[in-house]
């Protein structure tokens, strides 16, 4: 997976909130298929014949899940289903949330896109948490 695709995919989860699988696929499909974003994300790469953006997004999500950048979270519906004698759980029943590794990857990619490495890491030890941000700039969260 190219860095630009990973960056745009992880940016949906950058708020650290969990998202339903179907909502994430729908939002990412709209984002990746948008003509203004499509040229930046896909470049000259063409979509495979007889394929849809949603299937490509699901492939990218599976790859990011395997890499450990996003994790599946059980919902109340899944917990209730597991109490029954027989049940069937689909990957679409889970919610998706970014992991610490994914947050670090997204943060470093944002820094690389801004081109300003001086404030990140070495000088302040900023790790993306609000506590560290409050120590760097106390007036920011008043």
CATH architectural grouping = Orthogonal Bundle
What's the rounded overall pLDDT mean?
Answer: 82
Q: What is the makeup of the main sheet?
A: 3 strands, antiparallel
Overall domain count? 1
CATH topology: Arc Repressor Mutant, subunit A
Radius of gyration: 18 Å
Structural class of the helix and strand makeup? mainly alpha
Topology:
Elements: H1 3-11, E1 19-20, H2 21-33, H3 35-42, H4 53-67, E2 70-73, H5 76-82, E3 95-98, H6 100-114, H7 130-136
Antiparallel strand pairs: 1-3, 2-3
Quick overview of this protein structure:
The protein is mainly α. Helices cover 52% and strands 7% of the residues.
Written account of the structure:
This protein has 142 residues and is mainly alpha-helical. The chain has one domain: Arc Repressor Mutant, subunit A, CATH 1.10.10. Strands 1-3-2 form a three-stranded antiparallel β-sheet. It is flat.
């Amino acid at each position: 997976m190219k860095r630009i695709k990973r960056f745009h995919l992880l940016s949906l989860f950058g708020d650290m909130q969990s998202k339903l699988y179907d909502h994430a696929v729908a939002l990412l499909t709209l984002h990746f298929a948008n003509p203004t974003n499509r040229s930046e994300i896909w470049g000259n790469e063409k979509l495979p014949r007889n394929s849809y953006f949603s299937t490509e997004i699901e492939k990218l999500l599976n790859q990011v899940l395997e890499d450990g950048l996003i994790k599946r979270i059980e919902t109340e519906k899944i917990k209730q289903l597991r109490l029954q004698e027989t049940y069937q759980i689909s990957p679409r029943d889970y919610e998706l949330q970014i992991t610490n590794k994914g947050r670090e990857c997204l943060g470093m990619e944002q820094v690389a896109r801004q081109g300003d490495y001086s404030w990140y890491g070495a000088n302040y030890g900023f790790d993306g948490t609000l506590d560290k941000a409050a120590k760097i700039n106390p007036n920011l969260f008043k």
